[in-house]
What we know:
Layout: E1 3-11, H1 16-27, E2 32-38, E3 43-49, H2 55-64, E4 68-69, H3 77-112, H4 119-134, H5 136-147, H6 153-173, H7 176-179, H8 189-213, H9 215-221, E5 227-232, E6 235-240, E7 249-252, E8 261-272, H10 274-277, E9 283-285, E10 290-291, E11 296-297, E12 301-308, H11 314-326, H12 331-361, H13 366-380, H14 383-403, E13 406-408, H15 411-416, E14 422-426, H16 427-431, E15 437-442, H17 447-457, H18 463-474, E16 487-493, E17 497-502, E18 505-510, H19 512-517, H20 524-535, E19 539-545, E20 548-556, H21 563-572, E21 576-580, H22 585-595, H23 606-618, E22 623-627, H24 633-638, E23 641-645, H25 650-655, E24 658-660, H26 667-701, H27 705-708, H28 714-733
Parallel strand pairs: 14-21, 14-22, 22-23, 23-24
Antiparallel strand pairs: 1-3, 1-4, 2-3, 5-6, 5-7, 7-12, 8-9, 8-10, 8-11, 8-12, 13-24, 15-20, 16-17, 17-18, 18-19, 19-20
Amino acid sequence: xxxxxxxxxxxxxxxxxxxxxxxxxxxxxxxxxxxxxxxxxxxxxxxxxxxxxxxxxxxxxxxxxxxxxxxxxxxxxxxxxxxxxxxxxxxxxxxxxxxxxxxxxxxxxxxxxxxxxxxxxxxxxxxxxxxxxxxxxxxxxxxxxxxxxxxxxxxxxxxxxxxxxxxxxxxxxxxxxxxxxxxxxxxxxxxxxxxxxxxxxxxxxxxxxxxxxxxxxxxxxxxxxxxxxxxxxxxxxxxxxxxxxxxxxxxxxxxxxxxxxxxxxxxxxxxxxxxxxxxxxxxxxxxxxxxxxxxxxxxxxxxxxxxxxxxxxxxxxxxxxxxxxxxxxxxxxxxxxxxxxxxxxxxxxxxxxxxxxxxxxxxxxxxxxxxxxxxxxxxxxxxxxxxxxxxxxxxxxxxxxxxxxxxxxxxxxxxxxxxxxxxxxxxxxxxxxxxxxxxxxxxxxxxxxxxxxxxxxxxxxxxxxxxxxxxxxxxxxxxxxxxxxxxxxxxxxxxxxxxxxxxxxxxxxxxxxxxxxxxxxxxxxxxxxxxxxxxxxxxxxxxxxxxxxxxxxxxxxxxxxxxxxxxxxxxxxxxxxxxxxxxxxxxxxxxxxxxxxxxxxxxxxxxxxxxxxxxxxxxxxxxxxxxxxxxxxxxxxxxxxxxxxxxxxxxxxxxxxxxxxxxxxxxxxxxxxxxxxxxxxxxxxxxxxxxxxxxxxxxxxxxxxxxxxxxxxxxxxxxxxxxxxxxxxxxxxxxxxxxxxxxxxxxxxxxxxxxxx
Length: 757
């Protein structure tokens, strides 16, 4: 079965209960396995069987539920969602200004001229366009929900303003109904109009703030140029980026953005990679250096060969991952969804009970006060704040992570990272730079050994093998290293090395374990070389044939400058740090001592890494695994939080739920701090949303009236409701300006935690 994973823009959603209805409608369709609808991004992420899921059916299902789902190309979903948001924001702004223009004189008449004989008619005239035209969408949406026997926030707004407006119209047309009963025929046109105006204001501010939370994606998508300069027929030609293919030769001029992933083939410059990696210092680029789409060339000029285009570039993968991540749900959201499902019906029940209680127990103006209490309860209740509390914080947190080279693929990992109590680090490519270089060798003066070494290493994709190939070729031309070498029975022994036949002879290339398993002893002079190289933290690769060692190389992989500092930060935060490597014990100890790790695990196989992670989990640890290679993928899949290095293998990045695009290991404590801050903001948002409704609804119902005669005005309730949503979104936006672990000074560390919670 081929899996489909698509995001679709959704229109018509206003609160958390809308989200649940859209999810329910989509889940009922054949082939759909999982659905995540995000109120903050107005998108629906659908996962299912590609052969069974039909976009048109999904659209019909959503429309039947009272909303709309837009069918777009996969890459255009975020663009279309943004277009919808821009149009919605512009429409809200237009309606808001018109509502303010009509409500202002309406309030003046209501406050100062209400006893004039013409006052009620003027207020009716001014309020009608506000309620029935500018606020018509609330009534339309409420009617759609009612047809499906459901209710949402628009239902509350429509009921409250509709009742106030209708009651006022009745009193203008039939004032004798109340006069005959000794009561004053009050009108509440200003209440209905001002409530609509305040809600439009809240919606406008909310949409504008929500647009701010998606700034990371907009920024990333803006990094790609629309055209490039390509070499053609001995010259150059400006072509659209869509026409660029793999192996094309592009000319990159000073100040230009690099459009695709590739490699420098001539020329040199410095490239600003901060937009992707978060590292501010430009990176020197010489012949052979890798280039990433979205980075910016500085003053030099160079030619590059295209290696990846379109969706295959790292930038495209980052954009796609951020989109998916921002659309995902944190576990805490599941609880919120359950509350939202019953919120509106409960509020409507409270409003009716409030009205009846006033009518039964009230005094002279019981009916009017009961009506006002019902309207106020309906107005003040705010399911929007509940619906926005988590997704806006997640969006802002994901965006902040992307700015710092931390690509987080789902909300659950972002939430869980703060609980990490143990981190397991791979050595090569994680603690070290992953750029191995042969620094010393013994035995390569033998042409036969050199020929076998090159033949075997050139057929392996392991970074150590590639460094051996580069070193042997750098020794210069040699007839003994021709292309007539035959390699048969090539066997890649994961975690150990390679066994192969070269020109009919069986050779072993790999670590000590490989040699020992085949009865090859390392003795005498070889033993002395081994000891000296391992104490210098070098990795050894042996070459053996016919039961004896023939050659060996020492490979150095420089430790990342940030490794020791990052590990110190993690340990100070109370997190246990472990290192696992397939290298020999002495080499592992030398690297571990250099970065501040006490007890490294050496000579481990991929399955051993996963078993170690499992063992830590059984001890009660929340474990993060950090790796970059295929051999780390099993351990990454096992860990509670899996983190891949961005320059590592595609498999590792696919398995991991976080990717560090930057080489700066300080991104690890930054990611943990970001998790803590995001969860803290979510908790603040939820507390405010719940406490607002818990306090506001009873006050609106009139619980304070017997004590001090206070009855909340519906207009103030509308303002409070608007403020509730805006405050939640604004609080989430604080994450965009949060300072993470950026200052390298010892005082700026992740806050210490005594427990994983």
